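Give me a protein, keeping tokens residue-aligned:
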Amino acid sequence: MKFNITIFFLIFNISLFSQTDFTIASQEDVSKFQIGSKVFDLMSKFEITFGDIDTQEIVDQLKKLTSITSYSSNTLLGLSNIESSFNEYILGSELTQLIEFEEDGYIVNIYTLENEDSVIEEISMLVKKSNNLNTIYLQIKGEIDLMKIVKVVNKLDVPGGVYLKKLN
């Protein structure tokens, strides 16, 4: 009996403190934009150099990323799915809030995950339009340079990326 109780608490603690991936319970009324790790793996294998410093910084940052995912919706059901999934994810992760601000009627919350060397490994951001249903969740994973990631998401036209400009 003691063994069963010990196993139960061991499994409970592991599941309670392990970081989960962001998932949307239902993708009904939710649009998804994703660039997966295979693209970044392929990019890292090429030696690309450009004369333009800005372009080179973007390519260098892209090589250090593992994924970019964005979910967006403009319906009540989609907003509810994105917001509840975001709140669950933040509560179950080690992400810490970096900044919260309001701009042009949008409420923006940006969270980051840093490793022990203070390297940012993840940015998770929720953008909600107050008095409207427009909602965007953006997640970027990899080795992230805050100054360069803004250029990357703007160049790729990632939904919600424009709100990262406050990080500069």
Remarks:
- Residues 31-167 form one domain.
- The chain has a mean pLDDT of 80.
